[in-house]
Amino acid sequence: MASQNNSLTSFALQKFRRNFWGVFSLAIIGLIGLISVMAYVLAPDASRNANQMHLSIHSKSPGFKVDMLRIPSGIITEQGALDKLFFGSTNTDTEIPIQSYKVADGNLSYIEYTSDALQGLEKEIELSRFPAGKYNDFIETRTFLFGTDKYGRDYLSRILIGSRISFFIGFIAVIISLVIGLILGSLAGYYGGRIDAVIMWIINVTWSIPTLLMVIAITLALGKGFWQVFIAVGLTMWVEVARVVRGQIISAKELQFVTAARALGFSDYRIITKHILPNIFGPLIVISAANFAAAILIESGLSFLGIGAQPPMASWGAMIKDHYNYIILGKPYLALIPGLCIMLLVMAFMLVGNAFRDALDVKV
């Protein structure tokens, strides 16, 4: 039996590798996953949530360049490497976009950047504010590859860090839905009778409530926040898993290997976990891939409505909400870039799910 399972698994993997779009989509998912983990390493603005605001350079086009003066605060913050990797750097320095600067009489004189050919304010700062008076180390030309958002934040950094929510919400929501769906679906399908009737009643009631309304209700009950959205989305996606598991177990529990397991005196728990569930693994993979995509779309919708991830946390859905009116103001890319990112990730998961379905179909 073990060798047969191994041969079927290797056969399915061979079929999957022959599916170009499935392999390509899996590579896209892996790349986005790597970007989401290493977001603060890749982001030009590595501050927490890439939240360095410069209102004087708001809504600038991709490729915009400006000289940035960084004034040290003198506050020393200690952060571990893992803290910086996962939560970003704690930046206490003040950053000011400038048009020009000069040094005279021990002072650094600079003119703040302004748009529309206006003359900015001229200000001075003592050179003693800079360590050893090396002011050149604190002035750099910064390029914003994706431009800036309406608050003057680096848009590329916000896109990179926003991938975390959209990517990881899929994992957490799928894990929650699998745990609840497997337990309830297994109990309903294997035991039947009143247990099946009660669980199916719960499934039908949950199924009749629109998903978005249920997520909103759970989110309001748990409160607005990062983890609350993850839990709320996961608690609304178990119904599909439970229905699939129930149907598969009803079909599988009458097969000869299950009857033989009962005759050998195996416990119900062992029969379900060791004999039945491994044989319905294929449909679970497919529905999990679909739930990944659905979770990403639901989170984006919640963020768009303002009850998802809360500012200043970066989220693709919230970025669309903040900039959708720019579509008619001549800068549609501010809403289109996060929209295209959502579309790419959702499509990748759907294509991977279709590829796994074809690979696990023994009739093809």
UniProtKB/TrEMBL annotation:
**Keyword annotations from UniProtKB, A to Z:** Cell membrane, Membrane, Transmembrane, Transmembrane helix, Transport
Which residue ranges does UniProt annotate as crossing the membrane? 20-43, 165-191, 198-220, 226-245, 276-298, 333-356
Record carries keyword Nucleotide-binding:
no
Q: Which domain of life is it from?
A: Bacteria
Membrane disposition: Multi-pass membrane protein
Q: Which CDD domains match?
A: TM_PBP2
What Pfam family does this protein match (any one)?
BPD_transp_1
Where is this protein localized, as stated in its record? Cell membrane
InterPro entries recorded: BP-dependent_transpt_permease, MetI-like, MetI-like_sf
**Gene3D superfamilies on file:** MetI-like
Q: Taking every annotated instance into account, which residue ranges of this chain make up the domain ABC transmembrane type-1?
A: 163-353
What the entry lists under PANTHER family is as follows:
D,D-DIPEPTIDE TRANSPORT SYSTEM PERMEASE PROTEIN DDPC-RELATED, OLIGOPEPTIDE TRANSPORT SYSTEM PERMEASE PROTEIN APPC
The UniProt similarity line reads:
Belongs to the binding-protein-dependent transport system permease family.
Q: Provide the protein name.
A: ABC transporter permease
Taxonomy of the source species: Bacteria, Pseudomonadati, Bacteroidota, Flavobacteriia, Flavobacteriales
